[in-house]
Amino acid sequence: MILRASSPVSIICPSSGSSSPASADGRRFSSMASFLRGPKVVRSAPRAMAAAGGERTKALTGVLFEPFEEVLRELALVPNSPDISLARQKYVDACEVAINEQINVEYNVSYVYHALFAYFDRDNVALKGMAKFFKESSEEERDHAEELIKYQNKRGGRVKLLPIVSPLTEFNHEDKGDALYAMELTLSLERLVNEKLLHLHSVAEQNNDPQMTEFIEREFLEEQVEAIKKIAEYVSQLRRVGKGHGVWHFDRMLLHEGDNGVA
């Protein structure tokens, strides 16, 4: 870039107080030259700002955050006993109890589904699709229980496994047949689990625990609604086909569900 001045100019040295007349272009050139030689002035700016605003900065210290002062209060809350969790923070007893209750719900439902798997896998029942469906359902509920166990430990709670009720072993219904009766039972269980999850969510809300509410919403609630919709469709289909040959076709559908990317 070439800069032209309409009249002779003299570049001002920052340390000199004298100058000669310059045109407008010359003054711009002089200002640019001063800017390029400006590190000395820039270095002095923070000192000037500190001098002017020192009292203000001092007044603000501690208003926003003083880690070495504030952490002293937190250190006093760190337990010394090896039997007490170091990770526990803002986690009340009511939430801990509710998580343990939900673990028990998931294990009980898993146990019922495992009993249904055992029933439909019998040689004199031989509905392999139903057996496959309930085996996967049992494993899914057990996975949910384990997710809750991991969360309990993550928050510094203590996992307490509660008793599991023995499920039924026979599921043949005189009017509905075994397939429809089992699927209606499943729909009722999934709706019950959803109610229990909503109660768990409300406990977290009442105790102002946003981490717990987010966990329940992310890991359980949406999936539970989808499961209820799918089981409701199965109930409707089985009501249409009755107890006869249609059950065998429904069972084949369940057996091959998920094959070749089919949901």
UniProtKB/TrEMBL annotation:
<keyword id="KW-0560">Oxidoreductase</keyword>
<keyword id="KW-0150">Chloroplast</keyword>
<keyword id="KW-0809">Transit peptide</keyword>
<feature type="region of interest" description="Disordered">
    <location>
        <begin position="1"/>
        <end position="25"/>
    </location>
</feature>
<dbReference type="GO" id="GO:0009507">
    <property type="term" value="C:chloroplast"/>
</dbReference>
<comment type="subunit">
    <text>Oligomer of 24 subunits. There are two types of subunits: L (light) chain and H (heavy) chain. The major chain can be light or heavy, depending on the species and tissue type. The functional molecule forms a roughly spherical shell with a diameter of 12 nm and contains a central cavity into which the insoluble mineral iron core is deposited.</text>
</comment>
<comment type="similarity">
    <text>Belongs to the ferritin family.</text>
</comment>
<comment type="function">
    <text>Stores iron in a soluble, non-toxic, readily available form. Important for iron homeostasis. Iron is taken up in the ferrous form and deposited as ferric hydroxides after oxidation.</text>
</comment>
<feature type="domain" description="Ferritin-like diiron">
    <location>
        <begin position="89"/>
        <end position="242"/>
    </location>
</feature>
<feature type="binding site">
    <location>
        <position position="106"/>
    </location>
    <ligand>
        <name>Fe cation</name>
    </ligand>
</feature>
<keyword id="KW-0479">Metal-binding</keyword>
<dbReference type="InterPro" id="IPR009078">
    <property type="entry name" value="Ferritin-like_SF"/>
</dbReference>
<keyword id="KW-0408">Iron</keyword>
<dbReference type="InterPro" id="IPR009040">
    <property type="entry name" value="Ferritin-like_diiron"/>
</dbReference>
<feature type="binding site">
    <location>
        <position position="224"/>
    </location>
    <ligand>
        <name>Fe cation</name>
    </ligand>
</feature>
<dbReference type="InterPro" id="IPR012347">
    <property type="entry name" value="Ferritin-like"/>
</dbReference>
<feature type="binding site">
    <location>
        <position position="141"/>
    </location>
    <ligand>
        <name>Fe cation</name>
    </ligand>
</feature>
<dbReference type="GO" id="GO:0006979">
    <property type="term" value="P:response to oxidative stress"/>
</dbReference>
<dbReference type="GO" id="GO:0008198">
    <property type="term" value="F:ferrous iron binding"/>
</dbReference>
<keyword id="KW-0934">Plastid</keyword>
<dbReference type="InterPro" id="IPR008331">
    <property type="entry name" value="Ferritin_DPS_dom"/>
</dbReference>
<dbReference type="Pfam" id="PF00210">
    <property type="entry name" value="Ferritin"/>
</dbReference>
<comment type="function">
    <text>Stores iron in a soluble, non-toxic, readily available form. Important for iron homeostasis. Has ferroxidase activity. Iron is taken up in the ferrous form and deposited as ferric hydroxides after oxidation.</text>
</comment>
<feature type="binding site">
    <location>
        <position position="144"/>
    </location>
    <ligand>
        <name>Fe cation</name>
    </ligand>
</feature>
<dbReference type="GO" id="GO:0004322">
    <property type="term" value="F:ferroxidase activity"/>
</dbReference>
<feature type="binding site">
    <location>
        <position position="190"/>
    </location>
    <ligand>
        <name>Fe cation</name>
    </ligand>
</feature>
<dbReference type="GO" id="GO:0006826">
    <property type="term" value="P:iron ion transport"/>
</dbReference>
<keyword id="KW-0409">Iron storage</keyword>
<feature type="compositionally biased region" description="Low complexity">
    <location>
        <begin position="1"/>
        <end position="24"/>
    </location>
</feature>
<dbReference type="GO" id="GO:0006879">
    <property type="term" value="P:intracellular iron ion homeostasis"/>
</dbReference>
<protein>
    <recommendedName>
        <fullName>Ferritin</fullName>
        <ecNumber>1.16.3.1</ecNumber>
    </recommendedName>
</protein>
<dbReference type="InterPro" id="IPR001519">
    <property type="entry name" value="Ferritin"/>
</dbReference>
<dbReference type="GO" id="GO:0008199">
    <property type="term" value="F:ferric iron binding"/>
</dbReference>
